[in-house]
C-alpha cells in the first residue's frame, strides 16, 4: 500500500542521508574530493535544522514559540561555525587553524542550546521537590564529570605547554557546557510527566544526547590529535540536526492534539522505572571507572555520589513521613466532609425545607420503628394529625409569602407546645403530624391538643397583618385504635376530619363510628 504521508517520507529521507554519509566516509575516504563532499554532507543538515526551527517558531503563536526561537538562534550559530570550516577547507583549501572562529561559534551555540533547555523546563523544575531533583541529577552527573575529566579535560591540561591557551579554553568550556546540558536533560527525564509531553520533546532530548556524545568524542579526538574532517563522529552532528528538524515538524503536527494512547502510557511507565534505578547505576559505573583509572577527581566523584545517595534516601524517608502525615490529615478532613455531607443529605431527605421540621418520610420511618419496638409491652403511642383551618384563604388573600411565614410560625408554636414529649413533623401543605411515645392515658394527649389549639389561636404578625388562625386535630392511639401503621394513619386522619365537621378549632379522639361517618 502506498504511503502518502509526506512527513514519513521526510523522516525516511533523513535516515537515508545519514546512511549515505557513513557509506561515504567509510568507503571513499581516499577520494580526491573527500573533504569537500564531507563538508557538504555536514552543512546540509545544519541548514535544514535552522530552516525547520525558524518555520516552527513563525507558525507557533504562544509562549512556546520563544523556546523554538532560542533553538533557531542556536542552530544558526552552529551553522556559522560549520560555514567557517567550509570556508577554510572548501574555498581556501587549507586546514582549519586552531582556536579559530569555528570553535567560538560552536561553543556559543552549545551555550544557547543550554539556555533553550533551561527556558523550556524551568517551570517543571520549579514544581518538583528541589532537593530531591538536585540529588538525583547530580548523582547522574557525577559519572559524566568523572568521564569528562579523565578522557577530555585532563589530557588538555597536560597538553597546555604545546597548545594555544585560547584553544585550550574552548576545549574545556565545551565539556563544561555539555555537563550543564546533561544536567538539564537528566532533570527532564526525572521531571517529565510523559502523559502531558509530546513526542517532539522526546526527539529534542534524543537530539541533545546525540550532541553530547558527538561533542565529547570530538574533544577526545582533538586531544589525541586523531580528529579530521570526515571522521566517523561527524554524522552524529548531522543526526543531531535532523532530530531537531524532526522535532519541529512533529511539534507542528501535534499542536492541538492532547490525546495520549494507552500504549504510550505503558512505554512511559517503563521509562520511569528505568530512571528510578539510574542514580544507583551511575554509582556502579563510577566504581568501575575507579578500578580502571585511579584519579583523585574520580575518587571525589565516587565519594560525592555515595553521599548524595544517602542524603537522597534520608530525604525520601522524610518526604514519606510528611506524605503519611498529610495523607492522614486529608483522610480526617475527608471523613469530616463525608459526615457533614451525609448529614446534609439526611436533612434534605428527611426534613422540610420551609419549616425545618421532619417530613412525611421521617414520620413514617419513626412511627414504624416505634411500633415495632413497643409491640412487646404494648406501650401506647399517640398520633395527632393537625390541619390549619382556612389556610387557603390566607394564601389567596395575602399571598404565598405570608402563607409561608404563617406555616413557619405555626410550626414553631406547635413545637413549643409539644416540647420534648413528642416529635412534630410536617406532612405537606398546611398539615402537621405529632408522635408522642409512652402515653400513659388519654388525658395527657387531650391536654397537649388543647395547648396546641390555644397557642395557635394567638395573633400572628404576618408582614404587618395580625391574623388569628384555628386548627382541627385528629388523634389515634396505638395499639388501641390500630395495630399497624396504615390503620393508625387512617384513623387519625378520620378523627381530624371529624373535628372539621364539628366546626373546626377543636380536637377529636378516634372512635369506631368515625369510620361509619366517613363511609356515609
Report the β-strand fraction as a percent range. 5-15%
Indicate how many domains the architecture comprises.
Answer: 2
Task: Indicate the mean pLDDT.
Answer: 79
CATH topology of the largest domain: Rhopdopsin 7-helix transmembrane proteins
Order of helices and strands: HHHHHHHHHHHEHHEEHEEEHEH
Number of continuous helical runs:
16
Kindly report the spatial arrangement of strands forming the biggest sheet: 2-3-1-6-7
What does the largest sheet look like?
5 strands, mixed
Number of strands: 7
Given the helix and strand composition, which structural class is it?
A: alpha+beta
Under CATH at level 1, the class of the largest domain stands as Mainly Alpha
Shape: elongated
SSE layout and pairings?
Blueprint: H1 6-27, H2 34-59, H3 65-92, H4 101-127, H5 130-158, H6 165-191, H7 199-224, H8 234-254, H9 262-292, H10 296-350, H11 360-374, E1 380-388, H12 391-398, H13 400-418, E2 422-428, E3 431-439, H14 442-457, E4 460-462, E5 465-467, E6 471-478, H15 485-501, E7 506-509, H16 513-519
Parallel strand pairs: 6-7
Antiparallel strand pairs: 1-3, 1-6, 2-3, 4-5
Helix pairs in contact: 1-8, 2-3, 2-8, 3-4, 4-6, 5-6, 5-7, 5-9, 5-10, 6-7, 7-8, 9-10, 12-13, 13-14, 15-16
Amino acid at each position: 500500500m502506498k504511503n502518502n504521508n509526506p512527513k514519513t517520507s521526510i523522516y525516511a529521507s533523513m535516515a537515508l542521508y545519514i546512511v549515505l554519509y557513513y557509506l561515504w566516509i567509510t568507503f571513499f575516504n581516499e577520494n580526491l574530493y573527500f573533504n569537500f563532499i564531507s563538508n557538504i554532507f555536514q552543512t546540509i543538515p545544519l541548514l535544514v535544522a535552522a530552516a525547520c526551527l525558524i518555520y516552527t517558531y513563525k507558525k507557533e503563536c504562544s509562549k512556546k514559540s520563544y523556546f523554538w526561537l532560542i533553538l533557531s538562534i542556536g542552530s544558526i550559530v552552529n551553522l556559522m561555525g560549520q560555514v567557517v570550516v567550509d570556508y577554510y577547507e572548501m574555498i581556501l583549501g587549507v586546514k582549519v587553524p586552531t582556536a579559530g572562529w569555528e570553535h567560538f561559534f560552536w561553543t556559543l551555540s552549545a551555550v544557547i542550546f543550554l539556555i533553550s533547555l533551561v527556558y523550556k523546563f524551568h517551570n517543571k523544575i520549579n514544581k518538583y521537590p528541589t532537593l530531591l531533583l538536585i540529588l538525583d541529577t547530580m548523582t547522574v552527573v557525577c559519572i559524566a564529570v568523572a568521564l569528562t575529566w579523565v578522557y577530555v579535560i585532563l589530557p588538555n591540561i597536560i597538553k597546555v605547554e604545546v597548545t594555544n591557551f585560547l584553544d585550550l579554553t574552548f576545549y574545556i568550556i565545551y565539556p563544561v557546557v555539555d555537563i550543564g546540558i546533561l544536567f538539564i536533560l537528566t532533570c527532564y527525564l526525572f521531571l517529565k510527566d510523559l502523559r502531558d509531553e509530546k513526542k517532539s520533546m522526546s526527539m529534542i532530548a534524543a537530539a541533545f544526547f546525540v550532541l553530547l556524545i558527538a561533542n565529547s568524542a570530538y574533544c577526545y579526538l582533538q586531544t589525541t590529535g586523531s580528529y579530521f574532517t570526515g571522521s566517523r563522529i561527524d554524522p552524529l552532528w548531522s543526526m543531531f540536526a535532523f532530530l531537531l528538524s524532526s522535532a519541529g515538524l512533529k511539534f507542528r503536527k501535534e499542536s492541538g492534539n492532547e490525546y495520549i494512547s494507552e500504549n504510550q502510557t505503558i512505554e512511559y511507565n517503563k521509562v520511569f522505572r528505568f530512571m528510578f534505578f539510574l542514580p544507583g547505576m551511575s554509582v556502579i559505573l563510577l566504581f568501575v571507572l575507579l578500578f580502571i583509572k585511579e584519579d583523585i577527581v574520580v575518587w571525589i566523584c565516587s565519594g560525592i555520589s555515595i553521599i548524595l545517595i544517602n542524603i537522597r534516601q534520608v530525604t525520601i524517608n522524610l518526604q514519606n513521613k510528611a506524605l503519611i502525615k498529610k495523607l492522614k490529615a486529608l483522610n480526617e478532613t475527608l471523613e469530616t466532609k463525608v459526615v457533614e455531607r451525609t448529614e446534609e443529605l439526611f436533612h434534605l431527605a428527611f426534613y422540610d425545607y420551609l419549616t425545618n421540621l421532619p417530613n412525611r418520610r421521617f414520620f413514617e420511618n419513626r412511627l414504624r420503628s416505634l411500633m415495632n419496638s413497643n409491640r412487646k409491652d404494648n406501650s401506647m403511642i399517640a398520633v395527632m394529625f393537625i390541619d390549619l383551618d382556612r389556610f387557603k384563604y390566607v394564601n389567596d388573600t395575602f399571598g404565598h409569602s405570608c402563607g409561608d411565614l404563617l406555616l413557619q410560625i405555626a410550626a414553631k408554636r406547635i413545637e413549643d407546645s409539644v416540647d420534648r414529649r413528642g416529635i412534630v413533623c410536617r406532612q405537606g401543605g398546611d398539615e402537621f403530624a405529632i408522635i408522642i411515645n409512652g402515653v400513659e392515658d388519654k388525658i395527657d394527649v387531650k391536654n397537649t391538643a388543647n395547648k396546641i389549639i390555644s397557642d395557635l389561636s394567638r395573633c400572628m404578625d404576618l408582614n404587618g397583618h395580625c391574623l388569628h388562625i384555628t386548627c382541627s386535630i385528629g388523634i389515634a392511639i396505638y395499639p388501641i385504635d390500630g395495630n399497624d401503621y396504615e390503620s393508625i394513619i387512617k384513623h387519625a386522619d378520620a378523627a381530624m376530619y371529624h373535628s372539621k365537621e364539628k366546626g373546626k378549632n377543636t380536637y377529636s379522639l378516634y372512635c369506631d363510628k368515625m369510620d361509619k361517618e366517613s363511609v356515609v
